[in-house]
Recover the amino acids of this structure.
């Protein structure tokens, strides 16, 4: 096991779900568990493995493309009624992106129950030159995405504008250094909850409940 594999295995064990095992580029298996979170969601914030913040982000007026090849006007799409969870990922990422997506995947059933099916999960590619709609469809299948989960790509300049609007730019212009961010908002007029760090399923559900003002 090389060093990078050891690091990923450590992340896997800490979060309770695993990266796909690959052989010849084919996903062999992956699991999503629901173990105890790395830190208690009800404990002091200093014990958490992620950082929390709130901000009023204004989405740029750009047109993106969904996994079916259809156009999506991002600003009104985000402004539609209902809770939203948003992440930035890219298909060929082998570090934090699979873990970010796995956290959404593992929480889909609970999120659906809590929102009555009114929530939306949005994953925006930060590698639009490579991530075509077809590749996004394959990525969605890999993570067993349900109908509430939307995958978007688009022109590079528009993707850059979205990253800047959400204060999610990565250092040195290298997408491998992008932050593991999850954004949540309960309604169009509410502030965004910004979560910087990797979340297990239980932590994600706990933060969603707080975002929605639901009791534990």
């Amino acid at each position: 096991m090389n060093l990078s594999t050891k690091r990923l295995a450590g992340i896997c064990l800490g979060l309770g779900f695993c990266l796909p095992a690959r052989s010849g580029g084919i996903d062999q298996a992956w699991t999503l568990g629901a173990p105890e979170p790395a830190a208690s969601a009800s404990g002091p914030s200093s014990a958490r493995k992620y950082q929390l913040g709130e901000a009023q982000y204004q989405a740029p007026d750009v047109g993106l493309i969904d996994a079916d090849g259809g156009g999506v006007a991002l600003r009104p799409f985000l402004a539609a009624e209902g809770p939203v969870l948003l992440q930035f990922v890219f298909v060929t990422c082998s570090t934090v992106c699979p873990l970010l997506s796995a956290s959404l995947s593992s929480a889909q059933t609970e999120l659906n129950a809590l929102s009555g099916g009114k929530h939306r999960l949005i994953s925006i590619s930060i590698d639009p030159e490579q991530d075509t709609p077809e590749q996004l469809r394959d990525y969605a299948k890999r993570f067993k995405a349900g109908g509430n989960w939307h995958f978007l790509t688009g022109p590079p300049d528009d993707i850059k504008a979205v990253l800047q609007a959400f204060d999610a730019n990565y250092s040195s212009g290298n997408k491998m250094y992008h932050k593991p961010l999850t954004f949540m908002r309960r309604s169009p007029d509410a502030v965004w909850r910004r979560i910087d760090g990797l979340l297990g399923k239980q932590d994600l559900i706990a933060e969603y409940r707080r975002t929605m003002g639901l009791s534990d």
User: Anything to note?
Assistant: Residues 54 and 193 are 5 Å apart (CA to CA). The domain at 34-212 is CATH 3.40.30.10 (Glutaredoxin). Residues 1-46 have pLDDT under 50 and may be disordered.
